[in-house]
Fold these 2 entries.
Entry 1:
Amino acid sequence: STAPRSDERMPSWWSYGSMQISNRQGFLRATTLVDPYHVALFGGLTTTVDDSGALREVDGWIELRGPRPTLRALARLRAAMERFIHLRVLEPGGAGPEGSRAL
């Protein structure tokens, strides 16, 4: 089973506005928890996809785990958003791909 045991700690991602070091201790200010889906969809510059089209890695070091259909859907969503953004940059006033709505 891929579900963690109740006593097992899961890694988490945090975003912060500023960091302060005082007396050898670090303090993060203006923090927020980052959802793993945010990392999978919007994080990093490069991705690795396996032979079945499942998203496996972001930026060469963030490994993704989960059901293969979910990882395939994430790869497709990420690719569609990237295509849409590129089309918007190349032609800001254009209609966009069929089925898309203007942002």
Entry 2:
Amino acid sequence: IIQLKKGDNEILVPLPVANDPFDTKLYTITPFCLNGWGLLGELTKYVSLSTKRFNSVSCCDDENADCVVRFRVGGTKNEIVKVAAVNAFSGRLIVKTIKLRNNDREMYFISTDPTFD
């Protein structure tokens, strides 16, 4: 596995092995918004968009041009969650690190503005 880091973003990429009889692939199917963005969820999980973790995903409206996609995520208070979104038109990947504020499912969104938290 190769570990790529750019700032706080971290992506793990498996190294291919020739003639590996146990070579498996994992695919994620996600709907995309009209703005081209789709939520991939937690890239380090086998089920990256589990409904137990993400019970609501929606497209952003035109009021906030920097907003990519909205989602409601659950977990434990102060848990760190890395959530990814990809643009189908450009291939741009954004990974946002979120520290959950409480135990309830709270609404968050990914922005194209890197200074917005």
